[in-house]
Write a structure and sequence with these properties.
Helix 5 runs parallel beside helix 7 and helix 12 runs parallel beside helix 16. This protein has about 500 residues and is of the alpha/beta class. A 6-stranded mixed β-sheet has the order 3-4-5-12-11-15. Strands 1, 2, 8, 9 and 10 form a 5-stranded mixed β-sheet that branches. Strand 13 and strand 14 form a beta hairpin. The chain has a domain of about 30 residues.
C-alpha cells in the first residue's frame, strides 16, 4: 500500500466524528475503489473525469445491487428458511422477523433502503391496539437506533388501516429521522381522516411524503410498487442495479449553442452513460456472487428479472440558465416561458434516448429499459440543483411552483419530488396541506414532501436529518445518522435549509 493510500485509511480510522460502523462503511468503500474491473472507452473516461457522468461513489467493483426491494409478504406467508424464521403468528413475531430480515438486506449504504409497506404487513396482526402500539413503537425505535441511515425507507397506504394509524402516532411521538416514510395517496381510496393524519405527522416529523398512487400504479402497471431510499420507485421484488447520473449543468458548459446541446452533446453523453451503466451491471450479474448465491434470490424475496438500471440527472435549472444566458429572474428556469420550455425539451430528448436503448440485463417488467431518475443531488454539489428543481432561494409562489414543476414528473417514475416548507401555523390546519396535495396531484405532480419550518426533523432533499444532530456534528461530535454529514454539507453548500417558507 502506497503512502497516499495509507494516509487515507488512517484518516478514516482516526476521524473522531465517525462511529465504528461509519468507519467500517468508509473503509469498505475505499477497498471497493482500489481496483478497476470495467472496460470503458476513452470518450466515456473523459466524461467521467470531467464529472459530467457521476458514478455516485458506488465503487469500481460492485458486489451487490445499489437498491434491493424485497417482497416482505414472502416472510409473512412462509417465513425464511435461511434465517430459520417461521411465518409470524402475532405482532411481536411479525415485527421481530422483519427486524431480523432487515439486517440481511444489502444496499449501497449497507442498510436496507426499503422496509416494506409496513402497515399492510403488520395490520393482520393488530388484535389488541394497545399491545400493537407498544410493539410498533419499539419496532420503529429499533429501526431509528439500529438502521442508522436516512435512506432506510418504509411505505404506508393507500388504504386507511389500524396499523397505519398506529405507525403515524408512534412516528409523531418519537420524532425520529429514521425511517424515511412515504404514504401512497389516492383521494378516491385513502380516507380524508387518514390523509389529514399523514399531513399532521409530516408537519412535525417531515414525513410521510405523499406519492401519487394513481399515477404510479398506471406507470408501473401494478399496485405492487415501492418508494425507497430518497424517493426511488421500483416494482416490489426487484430493485436498482446501479445509479449513475448525468450532470447537465457541466455538460451545458461544453455546448456551443442550444441546438448543439440538444442534438449533439446531450444524446452523445446519454448514450455513453447508458453503456457505462450496462458495464457496471455486467460485472455485478456475470462476475459477482450476489445473484448466484443470495438467499434473497433462492427464496424469491427478489427476482433478477425485476431489476433495472437507474439513469439519473441533475442540474437542469443551471443548464437551462447557462444555455439561455438567463440572468434576470423572470427569464430563468422556474419563471421564464422560454426557460421552462427548454427544460422540457431537454428532458424529452433524454427520455427519447433512454427509452430507445434496450439493455440485455433488464426484463419485460421495465420493457428492457433503464429508468430515468430525477436525482436529489449529493453533499458536494455546489451550484447544482437537484433534478428538475428550481434553485433554493428562487422558488416562486407555491401554486405557480406546482404548475411549473408538474410537466416534468411524468418522465420520472423511478423518482422525482418537490419539497415545500410551511409555517408552523399549518399544524392547526393539516387539511390545508391535503388540499394543496390534491391540487398538485391533479396537476400531474408525482411526489411531494412537506414539513413545518419549526421542526427539528427536516427534509434535506430526499432524506431526513435532525437540525440538532447537524449542530452536534458541526461541533465535532459523532452522530448516529449516517446521512447527517450529507445534511450538514447540503446546508452549508447548497443552502438546503433555506427553502422559501410558505405562509
Amino acid at each position: 500500500m502506497g503512502d497516499i493510500q495509507m494516509n487515507q485509511v488512517l484518516e478514516i480510522i482516526k476521524n473522531e466524528t465517525l462511529t465504528y460502523n461509519q468507519q467500517l462503511l468508509q473503509l469498505a468503500g475505499y477497498a471497493g475503489n482500489s481496483i478497476e474491473v470495467f472496460d470503458i472507452d476513452e470518450e466515456t473516461k473523459k466524461l467521467l473525469d470531467a464529472e459530467i457522468i457521476c458514478t455516485m461513489f458506488e465503487g469500481n467493483t460492485p458486489y451487490r445491487p445499489r437498491y434491493v426491494i424485497p417482497n416482505y409478504e414472502v416472510l409473512m406467508e412462509k417465513g425464511c428458511e435461511f434465517l430459520s424464521l417461521e411465518a409470524p403468528t402475532d405482532i411481536w413475531e411479525a415485527t421481530n422477523s422483519l427486524l431480523i430480515l432487515y439486517k440481511h438486506v444489502p444496499s449501497i449504504t449497507s442498510y436496507p433502503v426499503y422496509l416494506g409497506n409496513i402497515d399492510t404487513l403488520l395490520n393482520p396482526f393488530v388484535k389488541d391496539e394497545e399491545e400493537a402500539y407498544k410493539a410498533i413503537k419499539l419496532f420503529l425505535k429499533h429501526v431509528d437506533s439500529a438502521l442508522t441511515d436516512s435512506f432506510v425507507h418504509a411505505n404506508i397506504g393507500p388504504v386507511d388501516t389500524k396499523a397505519g394509524r398506529l405507525i403515524l402516532k408512534a412516528m409523531k411521538e418519537l420524532e425520529c429521522a429514521m425511517p424515511n416514510l412515504t404514504v401512497k395517496y389516492d383521494k378516491d381510496i385513502t380516507s380524508k381522516e387518514f390523509a389529514k393524519l399523514c399531513a399532521s405527522t409530516a408537519l412535525v416529523t417531515a414525513k410521510p411524503s405523499f406519492a401519487n398512487h394513481k399515477m404510479d400504479t398506471a406507470d408501473f402497471g401494478t399496485e405492487n410498487y415501492a418508494l425507497a431510499s430518497c424517493y426511488n420507485g421500483f416494482i416490489v421484488g426487484g430493485g436498482g442495479y446501479t445509479l449513475v447520473r448525468l450532470v447537465l449543468s457541466r455538460l451545458a458548459e461544453t455546448a456551443d449553442s442550444v441546438e448543439d446541446f440538444l442534438y449533439n452533446k446531450l444524446p452523445f453523453a446519454a448514450e455513453k452513460m447508458l453503456n457505462y451503466i450496462d458495464e457496471r451491471i455486467k460485472f455485478l450479474v456475470e462476475e459477482a456472487a450476489f445473484f448466484k448465491t443470495s438467499f434473497l434470490i433462492k427464496e424469491e424475496f427478489i427476482k433478477k428479472e425485476l431489476f433495472t438500471g437507474m439513469f439519473g440527472m441533475v442540474g437542469l435549472a443551471e443548464a437551462v440558465n447557462h444555455l439561455l444566458n438567463a440572468t434576470e429572474q423572470n427569464d430563468r428556469f422556474g419563471y421564464g416561458d422560454e426557460a421552462n420550455e427548454l427544460g422540457l425539451k431537454i428532458v424529452e430528448k433524454l427520455n427519447e434516448v433512454v427509452t430507445s436503448y434496450k439493455s440485455p440485463y433488464v426484463g419485460d417488467a421495465y420493457k428492457n429499459n433503464h429508468v430515468m431518475h430525477c436525482q436529489v443531488g449529493i453533499d458536494t454539489d455546489t451550484g447544482i440543483s437537484p433534478g428538475c428543481r428550481i434553485p433554493v432561494g428562487e422558488e416562486p409562489e407555491i401554486f405557480k411552483h406546482i404548475i411549473q414543476s408538474a410537466p416534468f414528473h411524468k418522465y420520472f417514475f423511478n423518482g422525482i419530488g418537490d419539497i415545500f416548507v410551511f409555517e408552523d401555523t399549518y399544524k392547526d390546519n393539516p387539511e390545508a396541506i391535503v388540499n394543496v396535495i390534491d391540487g398538485a396531484f391533479n396537476s400531474g405532480i408525482r411526489y411531494i414532501s412537506a414539513y413545518a419550518g419549526g421542526c427539528d426533523v427536516v427534509r434535506v432533499t430526499g432524506y431526513l436529518v435532525k437540525k440538532s444532530e447537524v449542530a452536534q456534528l458541526e461541533s465535532g461530535q459523532a452522530v448516529k445518522n449516517n446521512a447527517t454529514v450529507f445534511g450538514m454539507n447540503a446546508k452549508n453548500g447548497a443552502k438546503a435549509f433555506d427553502r422559501r417558507l410558505r405562509d
